[in-house]
Amino acid sequence: MLAEFPNDLARLVHLASIRDYNTGVYLHSELSRRFGVAAVDQILKLQHQEIFDRLLEAPISSYVDQLRLYISFTHASPAELIRTWKDLKAYSSAIPLGCDLLAAELFAWNVMSALYVLEGTEQSSPASQG
Predict the structure, then answer these.
(1) pTM above 0.85, yes or no
(2) Are 91 and 114 a contacting pair, CB within 8 Å?
(3) What's the CA gap between 110 and 66, in Å, rounded?
(4) ∠ CA(23), CA(28), CA(34), 5° rounding?
(5) φ, ψ for residue 75 (rounded to 5)?
(6) CA distance 74 to 63
(7) Angle value at C-alpha 13, between 11 and 18, nearest 5 degrees
(8) Residue range 4-14: average pLDDT?
(9) How many CB atoms within 10 Å of residue 46?
(10) CB count, 10 Å around CB of 82?
C-alpha cells in the first residue's frame, strides 16, 4: 500500500489523510474490511510513527529533496503547494497523534525550512520568471 509513494514524506501525508479527523482511527476501505478496523488502525498507527521518526532523523536537505519529489508526484503547481503549505501549515496534520511536542516542533521547523528553500529556488528558476 505505501510502496506506491515515492518517499517517506509522501507516505506520511498519505497516512495522515486516511486517519479520521474526528476519532484518530486509520481507515483503509479495502484493508479495514478485510482485516478489521482495529487491526488495520494499529498497524497503520505504528507505520505512521515509524515513518515520522525516520523523518526526524533526516537532514533538511532530505526534506527539500523529498518535498520536491512529493510536489512532482502530486502534479501540483510548486508555487501553489508551497504557498498553501506555508499558509495552512498543512504538514501539521501529518504529525502522529500523541506525538511529543518537541518532536512535532522539530518536524514543523524542518518542513518550513524546506518550504523556504524550495520557494527560493522556485522564484529564481527561469520558468517562474517568464
Answers:
(1) yes
(2) no
(3) 12
(4) 115
(5) 60, 20
(6) 16
(7) 95
(8) 96
(9) 12
(10) 22
